[in-house]
Design goal:
The protein is globular and about 65 Å long. A 7-stranded parallel β-sheet has the order 3-2-1-4-5-6-7, sandwiched between helices. The protein is of the alpha/beta class. It contains 17 helices and 13 strands. The chain has 2 domains: 200 residues, Rossmann fold (3-Layer(aba) Sandwich); 185 residues, Rossmann fold, CATH 3.40.50. Helix 1 links the parallel strand 1 and strand 2.
């Protein structure tokens, strides 16, 4: 029975955690899997409750942190090597940048037969300056050259990795979209809508609009707040905005939110993290995303599963997961006017909201359900194992 060691950056709310969870929980009994990863950081939501929900008990590596640290990274590397030597995996599969660097380096040192890596987004633009970015690209190219396979989570990401950032040839990159447990966003919507709107005191005639994600610079909440103010100036409809999440930008965002409240009244609310996001989404009417960079934004997939129309910036793999003009509107990043125009259209026109909500469930169910993810990944593992035997 082939053994798989799955290594993830850290257990925080996001696509990598869900991806690792479903692959570990639902992969067939033909494989034995061990899941390890770092802990969530201050300001992030701990996602260990997700693993508990699916009866998983991962090994936690306290030393593996997002911020580079010679001492911490070296300690994490040694711990990963020790786990590899004890578990003796046939495949080491790393997820996201830090796990990809330390995990693959340890796997190469221990001569693991097959080493593969999944990019869940990347840090090649909008995160760091040119010098740091060049260093990260160089590291990723060297790691990719020694890896047996590279997984991209969208065709757009594959093109970026191969053609734009030159990480490795396209022939080495296999596309496997993320997968999720989507039923909880689709079922009991009427009941959940009532619960959420009562909880947050949202009246029947109010349009509720949310943005869900880390409060981090890359998510560009400044753009969202610019859109909020412009939207309030362009419509007379009753609106409530919700910022769901937490992180390093909270204090700065909160200051701006308070300024908007002083001017317009309590039209915007910061909720921090919400664990039952399926229930919360049911109480919303529109979901927004204003990021400067993304891999596959989980919030947009979840929104479509619940029939929420979307307005989002055109970044990363967004166009692979949103049907532009059919389940939502995709606009160029930092285009405040066009973003506001599409948002106001949805606020003013209930028929348009209903039109965009109709296709979401069928679209994401057919493409992003965890059963499809597991099937595709098992086929890829088997391909690599057969190739190694030859």
């Amino acid at each position: 029975m082939p053994k798989i060691l799955r290594i993830i950056n850290r257990f925080n709310i996001g696509g990598p955690t869900y991806n690792a969870t479903f692959l570990t929980r639902y992969i067939s009994n033909d494989y034995e899997t061990l899941l390890i990863g770092g802990c969530h950081e201050e300001g992030e939501a701990d996602s260990l409750h997700i693993l508990e929900q699916y009866d998983l008990d991962p090994l936690l590596i306290q030393e593996m942190q997002r911020i580079p640290s010679f001492k911490g990274d070296r300690a994490a590397y040694k711990k990963i090597k020790q786990i590899i030597q004890e578990f003796k995996p046939d495949i080491v599969h790393t997820h996201a940048a830090k796990a990809g660097a330390l995990g693959r380096k340890a796997a190469f040192a221990c001569k693991v037969p097959i080493v593969i890596h999944t990019f869940h987004g990347h840090v090649f633009h909008s995160y760091f300056g040119k010098v740091k970015t060049s260093i990260f690209k160089l590291i990723e190219r060297r790691l990719a050259k020694k890896s047996d396979g590279i997984i991209a989570i969208s065709e757009i990401q594959k093109n970026e990795l191969a053609e734009i950032h030159k990480i490795c040839p396209a022939s080495k990159i296999h596309v496997i979209p993320l997968g999720f447990d989507l039923e909880k966003f689709h079922l009991n919507k009427i009941e959940n809508r009532k619960i959420t709107r009562e909880k947050f005191n949202i009246s029947q005639d109010e349009i509720a609009i949310a943005i869900v994600g880390r409060l981090a610079p890359i998510k560009n909440h400044s753009l969202f707040l610019d859109v909020v103010e412009k939207t309030l100036a362009e419509t007379t409809k009753k609106i409530r905005f919700f910022i769901v999440g937490d992180g390093e930008e909270r204090e700065r965002i909160e200051l701006r939110v308070n300024q908007i409240i002083e001017k317009h009244g309590r039209v915007i609310e910061m909720t921090s993290w919400i664990k039952n996001i399926g229930e919360f989404n049911s109480g919303m009417d529109i979901l927004c995303l204003t990021s400067d960079n993304e891999g596959t934004p989980v919030s947009l997939i979840e929104a479509q599963a619940g029939g929420l129309p979307i307005v989002t910036t055109d970044v990363g793999g967004v166009k692979d997961i949103v049907l532009n003009g059919e389940t939502g509107w995709v606009v160029p990043k930092n285009n405040i006017s066009l973003f506001t125009e599409k948002l106001v259209l949805l606020i003013e026109d209930e028929t348009e909201r209903l039109r965009l909500s109709e296709k979401g469930w069928d679209f994401v169910k057919s493409k992003f359900h965890y059963t499809i993810l597991v099937k595709n990944m098992e086929e890829y593992y088997q391909y690599l194992l057969n190739k190694k035997k030859k």
